[in-house]
Amino acid sequence: MRTSGHDVRVLTTDHVESSAVGADDPETYRELRWYWFQHDFPRLSLSERLRLERQNQTVLRRHLDEYEPDVVAWWAMGGMSMALIESVRRREMPAVGFVHDEWLVYGPLVDGWQRAVRRLGAGGPLSRELGVPAPVRLDLAADWVFVSEAMKLHAISELGPLPNAGVAHSGIDGSLFREAPGHRWRGRLLCAGRIDERKGIDLALPLSACYQA
């Protein structure tokens, strides 16, 4: 985006992968906390969740006030404070969200604060009293851009209508693949990745029998 003449600031979590190489970009700020830790979502007390949310809200407000962005882009917010999305919406700031996995669906479920608010059934009053916005209006919060039509339809089936939703495919070059003649599968398939039903592993064998790279 910078090569196109834009100024960009990245606000992300304080987690750094052990495999990371090199220093962060000067405009990358690792100041947010999240609910994910060591490939799990540990249980936090209500007071711990509130501290996490308030810290993240304070950090977001500071960056919005200092940087004054023209648009906010949300990316991979699963495990993060979804209330950040609502805060930007309530400021009436333009926002776009990139949905390349199911984070828009599972994000509210693993967000400890949103889960507590739903259980207590006091989103509005609790939000005003504690300074953490809830509930999150995802349908109004951003222009959502999904990596596939299937992912968009699944999100709508789980969350309800998303009026400003579109699709932008990953841009895989179709010429890299050619249709193979039909034959009975006799090979061995290595699947290198996390075992997760959302990845469609159950479709891998039927597809591999039809296509070859």
Task: Give a nutshell description of this structure.
The chain has 213 residues and is an alpha/beta fold.
Report on the structure:
- The chain has 213 residues and is α/β, with parallel strands linked by helices.
- The protein folds into 2 domains: 2-167, Rossmann fold; 174-212, no CATH class.
- The protein has helices at residues 46-67, 83-90, 103-110, 112-120, 123-130, 138-141, 149-159, 204-210; strands at residues 10-13, 28-32, 72-75, 95-99, 143-146, 165-167, 178-179, 211-212.
- The strands form 3 sheets. A 4-stranded parallel β-sheet has the order 3-4-5-6. The protein has a two-stranded parallel sheet with strand order 1-2.
- Residues 209-213 have low confidence and may be disordered.
Q: What's the number of extended β-strand segments? A: 8
Quickly count the domains.
Answer: 2
**Arithmetic mean pLDDT:** 86
How many helical elements?
Answer: 8
- The CATH topology label of the largest domain is Rossmann fold
Cα-to-Cα separation, first versus last residue: 32 Å
Approximately how much beta-strand content do the residues carry?
A: 5-15%
Biggest sheet character:
4 strands, parallel
The coarse silhouette is globular
- Major beta sheet, strand line-up: 3-4-5-6
Helical content (DSSP H or I, runs of 4+): 25-40%
Q: Mind telling me the CATH class of the largest domain?
A: Alpha Beta
What is the structural class?
Answer: alpha/beta
